[in-house]
Amino acid sequence: MEEIIMQKLKILADSAKYDVSCSSSGASRHNNGRMGNAHAAGICHSWGSDGRCISLLKVLFTNKCEYDCEYCINRRSNDFPRAAFEPDELARLTVEFYRRNYIEGLFLSSAVEISPDHTAEKILQCLELLRYKYGFAGYIHAKIIPGVSQEILHRIGLVADRLSVNIEMPSSKSLQELAPQKKPKQIFAPMRQITNTLIEHNSLVGPGTMFKGQQLNTPEHYLSGPETGFAKPVHQKAGGPKDSRDFRAPRGMFSLPEMWEQESIQLPAQKKGSFAAAGQTTQMIIGAGGESDKSILTTSENLYRAFKMKRVYYSAYIPLIKSPKLPDIHTQVPLAREHRIYQADWLLRFYGFTVSELFQDGSTDLDPDLDPKVTWAIRNLDYFPLEVNTASYEQLMRIPGIGDRSAKRILRQRRYSAVRFDDLKKIGVVIKRAKYFILCCGRYYGDRKFEPEVIRSSILQMESGLQMSMFDTSGAPSIETSQESQDVGRLAI
Known about the structure:
- By secondary structure, the protein is α/β, with parallel strands linked by helices.
- The protein has two domains: 2-332, TIM Barrel (Alpha-Beta Barrel); 372-484, no CATH class.
- Helix content is 36%, strand content 10%.
- It contains 17 helices and eleven strands.
- It has an eight-stranded mixed beta sheet with strand order 1-2-3-4-5-6-7-8. A three-stranded mixed beta sheet has the order 9-10-11, with no helix packed on it.
- The longest helix has 19 residues, at 452-470.
- The relative contact order is 0.08.
């Protein structure tokens, strides 16, 4: 019996590895009297808000799918081993892995076997066994299958810490072409239900600082949809934008028409924070449907505004399936593009940027050579250089090389004495980028002409040297380089 369960685990963990909400460890190491364990099948690593690495059992409940989505390795027409857990099998497996210190939580997704409700009912049984029979109090991230009934979704939310409904395709056109069995209404209805329920429970957690200063007490306040058209940014005389709310985003390719026609869902009041306290996320595939970076990020911006998603994940399409509708099987995986989109997403969530700003020159794709924040700054040199001793917090956040922490340190130091150029590195500013866009006590420290092409070539040269130094075997990388390379979403911002 144990061998059968482990065989199922091997098959279903392998089928789950393309979900990018967390990444597989791929390591197998037994405990030899030391602390902790690692198991190759199904163990993945995620990270907490404090930077701590968390091990999760990442697995599908079943890979027997009724759908035939072109891009999916588990699609119905694909010939490969199939398996499915029984609810108690997966519940016991999770508890035993936890007792052996393999994992700290469960990341559970699934293909659609028979119907969304049939599969979701079995997932619910498994999670309720974990919580109520085995007393498991660890972290649970559950994927919600589009088309599931409201009652089942609500009960899953009461036993899971985080919920996610994968949108997969960034536009309705590619969804219709590559996954015709999935409908936008089936995807957005559970998203809205989750958002409404989180609001009722006063436990809504959202995308960083995107809505800082806004009162979002009712679903109608932000489920009315993003505003249409482009609005010209309002800037202070000193340079950068007056406030992030002065920038308005256009409606995206995924206009979500069905979403706003539905009534708010009224559910029984529960204990505060008991429903999916860690919020909801979603995932989009990059490079399968031919969308531009602008259309992908516009869809993300609309999702953040409509549902206040905790995060949108992006998965570079891996060409494993031959299809005339998909990129050639020998096409290179667009990992660099995925990385730039993550950087732009970080700017949307934490830096007050909008999609209309990032593509205000009429382009539709991000610069593959420079991160989006540097690209925006070079295209808007008329806002720079900014004097660090007088710039507002919002203006400081627009300067490449200055992030939230270093901006707050600058503001704090300015209360007691002027910030000098030599102080900036100690504060945490990345001088190699910031020096081209700032004044310090009235002096410009950039060693090049204040012209777009000159600054661009200088930063490109510096970035090339930084990448080389990260792989230099003559010595360990500097502290500055090591810190910059820790987070894919924040690198080079």
